[in-house]
Amino acid sequence: MIKLGEEIIVWWPGTVIKPDDGGKTKELEFEIQCKVMSKVTDINDFIALGIDKQLDFLFEHIKDWKGFGDMDGNELPYSRESFNAAMDDRHINAAIIQTWISASKGAPVKN
Question: What is the residue extent of each domain of the chain?
Answer without folding.
Answer: 9-105
